[in-house]
Amino acid sequence: MLIFTIIALHCVVKPGLQRIEEFVNDKNQGKSRFYMDNRRPIDSKRRYPSFTQQPWYYGDGSDFEAIPSWMKQQAKKDNPYESESNVRWKFLKTASSRKPDDLLKRKPEASSESQEIDADLFKNEYYKDFQKFIREHNKVYTNSREYRWRFQVFVKNMKELKEMQDNRSNLVFGIGPFSDKTDEELSKRLIPHGYRFIIGEGDSAPLKIEDSDFPSREGRPQQIDWRTKGAVTRVKDQGDCGSCWAFAVTAVVEGQNAIHNKTLVSLSEQQLIDCDHDNSGCNGGYRPYAFKYIQRHGQTTDKLYHYTARAQNCRHIKANRVHINDYKWLGTNEEKIADWVSHHGPVSFGVNVTKPMYNYKSGVFNPSPEDCRQKSLGAHAMTIIGYGELDGEPYWLIKNSWGTHYGIDSGYLRMKRGVNSCGLADAVYTAIINK
Ligand SMILES: *[C@@H]1O[C@H](CO)[C@@H](O)[C@H](O)[C@H]1NC(C)=O
Ligand SMILES: *[C@@H]1O[C@H](CO)[C@@H](O)[C@H](O)[C@H]1NC(C)=O
Ligand SMILES: *[C@@H]1O[C@H](CO)[C@@H](O)[C@H](O)[C@H]1NC(C)=O
């Protein structure tokens, strides 16, 4: 079951909320216990990584003070030539060897000069694009300082965008809803790769579907798009909350419900965030736990239990709950996964996120394996809702939860199929509703 231990799962977190809520040194056990969401200590019976063997990546940097000093010392020892802020970055944010972005360290300064916008700014070649970006994405900046700061970040991102553009393919990157965000902010929105180690797996690891239960490949259509069959709800927006796990799982259950009960109903991610106490609300989640919760309790509708992008107390809304019978792991063979999808509907998966994913506009996205390993900002879960080929290139059609300004078709993307792109085939899970 090594596969389950290497798959990390999650995603976008509210900058303010994404913090180590409380770090309690449990002297009796000589172990640190870790509280998330101010709600619930992580089960002390579960396995934890050893901090010394495996650096602990969590939080947004503002919580460095909350970390026990022996852990800080360890981090400094591992990085003797780095300044504390760099150590902090490395320690908390990412397993990659990426250096902190210079821009990030340069906070906007309060000076009289910055009260007025430079004449330079208007002359900048990206100024018009920035104006357009602000209009299209309804950006509101609180003052001229922030405005200037955002413009600097935007210009830097535009320069990177040029480099991303791979002229050999029809893959297109462009200005998107995240174009004024720093790398630090983008990675803040992602759950670091160690989440699975933190929460452990318990007895929730899904069983693999028997090979004999896969539908036959014979007659599998060249392409499939479950939107055209009424099995996909509108694109949603998780906002600044690390809840992609809930969106990915919910889209699968919505699909199964649509296929088996012939009614397409938008279900409640918020219920999972508030009530699935095995997971961590806006601080991330492990999809099998969420499926297990739905199997036990059912999932009510989005209409009855609205999304708020923050963790709240669980509301016990019993009405209109959709139930599933089981949840399964589909294995890592993408041909078989396609067989399954063509026959049974959307499935959820996890993937390492690299920066170009934020700027994806069209084409078939397929970052290099090196970038996926070394330049990933964090992990993210989404839902495969179909597949096909674009100019001979096989792809998965994917529903994201980053709002309707993202990607193709207002909220979707295509990723390369058949090459385990950024680990997308490593942890594909689905819900089962018996007929
Ligand atoms: C794509 O073309 C642009 C301009 O023609 C060039 O600056 C850039 O380096 C090229 N990118 C790649 C990945 O070849
Ligand atoms: C199943 O379909 C029936 C009839 O269309 C509908 O009344 C019911 O609410 C649906 N159940 C769920 C769980 O969506
Ligand atoms: C995802 O990123 C982590 C951390 O950088 C890395 O250990 C892992 O190998 C990556 N997975 C893939 C499939 O690239």
Automatic annotation (TrEMBL):
Claim: Transport is one of the keywords in the record: no
Position of the signal peptide: 1-18
SUPFAM superfamilies: Cysteine proteinases
Domain of life according to the entry: Eukaryota
Coiled coil (residue ranges): none
GO molecular function, one term: cysteine-type peptidase activity
One Pfam family this sequence matches: Peptidase_C1
Domain Peptidase C1A papain C-terminal: residue ranges: 220-432
InterPro entries: Papain-like_cys_pep_sf, Pept_cys_AS, Pept_his_AS, Peptidase_C1A, Peptidase_C1A_C, Peptidase_C1A_papain-like, Prot_inhib_I29
GO BP term (any one): proteolysis
Assigned keywords, A-Z: Disulfide bond, Hydrolase, Protease, Signal, Thiol protease, Zymogen
Domain Cathepsin propeptide inhibitor: 130-186
Family in the record: Belongs to the peptidase C1 family.
Protein name: Uncharacterized protein
Lineage: Eukaryota, Metazoa, Ecdysozoa, Nematoda, Chromadorea
